[in-house]
Design goal:
Radius of gyration: 21 Å
Number of strands: 17
Low-confidence stretches: none
CATH architecture: Clam
Largest sheet: 13 strands, antiparallel
Shape: globular
Number of helices: 4
CATH superfamily: Lipoprotein localisation LolA/LolB/LppX
Structural class: alpha+beta
Distance between the termini: 55 Å
Length: about 280
């Protein structure tokens, strides 16, 4: 075997080893974030702390709420949601861990770490505060973009499936009947839209009564010429503080066809003081 052939074989071997290492690194789950419980103090108990489920809800919505929490609805003012998952970025699916902090129905902060061999490879910080979105991404910062503000407002309400009582306790929110297994969820639009409204179409499982799909027309990019259907689907359910919560759940853009993100929630902390934490950066 001549020298050139040996060099080619060595290079092929090196590339194969790198490919195997890359494949292995993308399959190592990161450790979960440390528990959040001790990081922020509890809020004073809401008053009232619990309300009765409204009698005026569309039938599939009322069935859903009775299934996940019963007749009495806990009042949730804040939530810190932590977990791990998988996110597809530029065609590559990466392991991730995330922490989402919400003032229910008002604002949020997202912190996400994309990992390789369990270690942070890229970090994402996103805020939606006072009706304005700011996204600090590995490829740059996005802010002062009306379409992204609008999209963030839909994220604000879409993520309420992890603290679902806000969708029946907030007086700005209402449900409209569609049929026996679906309803329209009407929510306030972002502040750039003044007193406007936005909406989701919500489908429920006719057998279990659980939420099957939550969809909205949403801007995908600051330069998108039109909105794209954005779909969120529970893949399973688990209890947190006596409430059945979607986990894992998948998020899909209709033009991509398959989920770009799968979120597995591992910890939810309700009604803690996040007034400083929601404006912070990182874990």
């Amino acid at each position: 075997m001549n020298i050139a052939a040996k060099i080619v074989l060595i290079l092929i071997g090196i590339l194969a080893l790198l490919a195997i290492a890359g494949w292995a690194g993308l399959r190592v789950r990161p450790k979960p974030f440390p528990t959040h419980t001790a990081q922020t103090p509890p809020l004073p108990a809401p008053e009232p702390a619990v309300i009765e489920l409204s009698a005026g809800l569309p039938a599939p919505v009322a069935r859903y709420y009775r299934t996940i929490l019963g007749e009495r609805v806990p009042v949730v003012e804040t939530a810190v949601i932590s977990g791990r998952g998988r996110l597809r970025i530029k065609g590559v699916t990466l392991p991730a861990r995330f922490r989402f902090t919400h003032v229910a129905g008002q604002s949020y902060r997202h912190y996400i770490e994309l990992t390789f061999f369990g270690r942070p490879l890229m970090k994402v910080n996103e805020w939606y505060l006072d009706g304005r979105a700011r996204m600090e991404l590995p490829m740059g910062v996005i802010e002062n973009e009306p379409k992204i503000d609008s999209a963030a407002n839909l994220s604000l309400w879409g993520e309420a499936v992890w603290f679902p009582s806000i969708l029946v306790t907030d007086p700005r929110v209402r449900w409209e009947a569609i049929d026996d297994v679906s309803a329209r969820l009407i929510v306030p639009a972002g502040s750039r839209d003044g007193d406007g409204e936005d909406s989701f179409t919500v489908s429920f499982d006719p057998e279990t009564g659980l939420l099957r799909r939550l969809e909205a027309m949403r801007w995908k990019e600051p330069t998108s010429p039109e909105k794209i259907r954005w779909r969120n689907e529970p893949l399973d359910w688990r209890p947190f503080d006596g409430v059945q919560i979607p986990s894992p759940a998948a998020t899909t853009w209709e033009d991509e066809g398959t989920p770009w993100a799968v979120w597995t929630v591992e910890e939810i902390v309700y009604n803690v003081d996040v007034s400083d934490y929601i404006r912070a950066r990182g874990e």
